[in-house]
Amino acid sequence: MSTAHPDAVAAESTGLSAKQARILRYLRENAADRTYFKSRLIADDLGLSAKEVGANMSAVADAATDVDVEKWGYSSGTTWMVTA
């Protein structure tokens, strides 16, 4: 039985950092319910800063195969359009 944290396993298999894997997992879990995500709201939910989310989002978008991540707009913070 493995004791590895799921984010560490995901990061290892996709080449993402643990923080990037957390963001990707968050988007995957919430993409069915929402389409648009603000960096600051993702950050609040994950205990990160909006700057950390934005800085890692391009790597997440490149690595994601089951969700499409597109920078959508910048009004009161960056908004990302995520489709599953």
TrEMBL record:
Pfam family for this entry, one: DUF7123
Residue stretches making up the DUF7123 domain: 12-83
InterPro entries for this protein: DUF7123 (IPR055547)
Domain of life: Archaea
Name of the protein described by the UniProt record: DUF7123 domain-containing protein
